């Protein structure tokens, strides 16, 4: 199981260098993997995205899946950050960092966590464009990605 596990659901932006300072620095860590998701404007009309969540419930749900990842891949360190509130294209929306003895474990755990965050974490996203606002529906491809786990 992970020696350290940190979950943060926050409105404020994060600094990758700060978040990764000392990350995975244990004698039995052989690999670290990091991923940062950004707000993407696929249509060229996105003004901003609004992300909502239920405080407490959301963190508990993410911690549960991170604990599962730590057990399955024997992680030595794990950080999951997800933002909420008003975010504009190009802003950081989330970060996953995993550390393990071997790179295959670190990569697999990171992908598992990212797939979960994309499809099952209790966040609600609304895209606000020049033409109006619309809640983002789950994509079949995101759900399909979970079947490999």
Describe the structure.
- The model has no long low-confidence stretch (mean pLDDT about 95).
- Helices cover about 30% and strands about 35% of the residues.
- Helix 3 (about 105-120) packs across helix 4.
- It has one domain: Molybdopterin biosynthesis MoaE subunit (Aldehyde Oxidoreductase, domain 3).
- The chain is of the alpha+beta class.
- The strands form 2 sheets. Strands 1-4-6-2 form a 4-stranded mixed sheet. A 4-stranded antiparallel sheet has the order 5-3-7-8, with no helix packed on it.
- It starts with a strand and ends with a helix.
- The longest helix is centred in the middle third of the chain and has 17 residues, at about 55-75.
- A hairpin with a 2-residue loop joins strand 7 (about 125-130) and strand 8 (about 130-135).
- The protein has 4 helices and 8 strands, in the order βαββαβββαββα.
Annotation keywords:
four-stranded antiparallel β-sheet; 149 residues; alpha+beta; Aldehyde Oxidoreductase, domain 3; 4 helices
Order of helices and strands: EHEEHEEEHEEH
Distance between the termini: 18 Å
Based on secondary structure, the structural category is: alpha+beta
Provide the gyration radius in Å.
16 Å
Contiguous helical run count = 4
CATH topology (fold) name: Aldehyde Oxidoreductase, domain 3
As a percent range, the share of strand residues is 25-35%
Number of strands: 8
Report the helical percentage. Answer: 25-40%
Globular, elongated, flat, extended or rod-shaped: what is the shape?
A: globular
The CATH class designation is: Alpha Beta
State the major sheet.
Answer: 4 strands, mixed
Number of domains: 1
């Amino acid at each position: 199981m992970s020696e350290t596990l940190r979950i943060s659901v926050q409105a404020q932006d994060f600094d990758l260098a700060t978040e990764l300072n000392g990350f995975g620095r244990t004698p039995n860590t052989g690999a670290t993997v990091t991923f940062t998701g950004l707000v993407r404007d696929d249509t060229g009309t996105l003004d901003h995205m609004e992300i909502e969540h239920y405080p407490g419930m959301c963190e508990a749900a993410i911690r549960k899946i991170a604990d599962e990842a730590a057990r399955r891949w024997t992680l030595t360190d794990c950080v999951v950050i997800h933002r909420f509130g008003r975010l504009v294209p190009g802003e950081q929306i989330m970060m996953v960092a995993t550390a393990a003895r071997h790179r295959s474990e670190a990569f697999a755990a990171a992908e598992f966590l990212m797939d979960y965050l994309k499809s099952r974490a209790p966040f609600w996203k609304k895209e606000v464009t020049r033409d109006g606002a619309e809640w983002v529906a789950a994509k079949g491809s995101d759900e399909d990605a979970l079947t490999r786990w």
